[in-house]
Amino acid sequence: MITITVNSQRHDIDVDPNMPLLWAIRDILGLTGTKFGCGAAQCGACTVHLNGEAVRSCVTKTGRAAGQNIVTIEGLSSGNNHPLQLAWNEMNVPQCGYCQSGQIMSAVVLLRENPNPTDQDIDDAMSGNICRCGTYQRIRAAIHKAAAMQAEGAKS
Questions:
Q1: How far apart are CA 12 and CA 135, in angstroms?
Q2: Closest by CA position to 43, among listed 105, 111, 87
Q3: What is the pLDDT of residues 96-152, one digit of tens each?
């Protein structure tokens, strides 16, 4: 039995500690916003937060996550109203949408560490997230928009 906390909810799950966290999240807990892309930590579709850091859940063992704080796209905000989620919609970022939860989860960490990133900062931080549809320009624009929204919220 492994105890994990996902989106502030504690779960006791009976899984092999070597099971990828992705499958515990999707198959055991039923949170399907986190996607399977490559299974080799190369595309970013499976990105979640483990104690506030972006990790690839397809290669993170569930045993490593025991007792840790995990946040998935479903737990990012209560009403899909995180500045990045709002900016993503406003800038019409998704095309097929498959990579978007991983993109957003990576961007959250970027903006926490660098609240006013340059284009190069964004490109560098997001380089491990692949978008098959090639919406990189819209992703960058949405990150800039979210940064501005967060800065405006901080001033209020």
A1: 38
A2: 105
A3: 999 999 999 999 999 999 999 999 999 999 999 999 999 999 999 999 999 999 998
Domains in the chain: boundaries = 2-75, 83-155
Six-digit token pair at 123?
Answer: 């490109």
**What is the spatial distance between Cα 137 and Cα 146, in angstroms, rounded to a whole number?**
14
Span 19-76, pLDDT tens digits = 999 999 999 999 999 999 999 999 999 999 999 999 999 999 999 999 999 999 999 9
Q: Identify the CA nearest to 50 among candidates 31, 28, 67.
A: 67
User: What CATH number was assigned to the domain covering residues 2-75?
Assistant: 3.10.20.30
Helix (H, G, I), strand (E, B) or coil at 123: helix
CATH 1.10.150.120 fits 83-155, yes or no: yes
Closest to 129 (Cα-Cα) out of 48, 16, 11, 63:
48
